[in-house]
UniProtKB/TrEMBL annotation:
SUPFAM superfamilies: Nucleotidylyl transferase. This is Cytidyltransferase-like domain-containing protein. PANTHER family: NICOTINAMIDE MONONUCLEOTIDE ADENYLYLTRANSFERASE.
Amino acid sequence: MDSVVRAVIEAIHSSPTRAVLCLSGGASQALGWLLSVPRASSTVLEATFMYSRASMVQLLGKVPTQSVCRETADEIALEAYNRALELSMPGMQVAGIGFTGVLASIPPKRGDHRCFVSARTQNGLWQYDLTLAKGHRDRYGEDYLTSCLLVKTLANVCGTIDDIPLDLKEGIEKLRETKLVYSEEEQLQQLLSGKICMINFSDRVNSPTSGTRRVVLSGSFNPLHDGHVKLLDAACSLREGGLPCYELSAINADKPPLGLTDIKERSNQFRSGNTLVVTNQPYFFKKAELFPDSTFVVGADTALRLLDE
């Protein structure tokens, strides 16, 4: 790792963004670089290298139409993003990084050597496509280049410096970059369709040291009232290091799903320092899967209903 790459990674580790990385077929050196620079735990929530086809099928929950293509990279990044949401505290900035590539190998590959990188956040998707000049580099050189591209992608997501030279072969290799921005309405539609598992609504960014355990109060919050606030405050006072979080499910067990207008109106009540997470899980056992190692707070009526069930 040269000094330029190290400086970029140091900037990444100083940013508030945390990420889950899922890679297949290349960019393997990037993981070693990220983990060898101090404060890696400030960035990396989890890293997975899928070298078997079965590993990718298990991650995606299906057999991909093609292992190395733009669509598969986007799907990997989406799975990584949902995993990052589950592993992080409410209000944290998280990203899912997906990489899939086919590089120099033995025996030689018939088709192009290429890679696709995707980075998913709550409100955006970064996409990078690169076809390599076949025969211009050995396997190590191609893996080095794709590792630089992965770190560059992560730097862009974190909003830090990305001054990593890719040293592309002039006139032959060209990096294609695209960024999609999702509106709040598009995010909610993705939630209702099950594409993403939750949406964070908060005007503050929690750091990794803000709290050690979520304290979650679930409700319909129609409206949010003083009783909700006092109940959550009381629960946090009993749980040392507790990070308060309100949870609103867009899907109800015995009622129609909330509409986009309803969700927006209720989420707007949480814009002044409170953290709200909107999920698509109506049942507590499913909420517990979304928020592992969390304390759930329930009122008397909810407690009686749960006991009856």
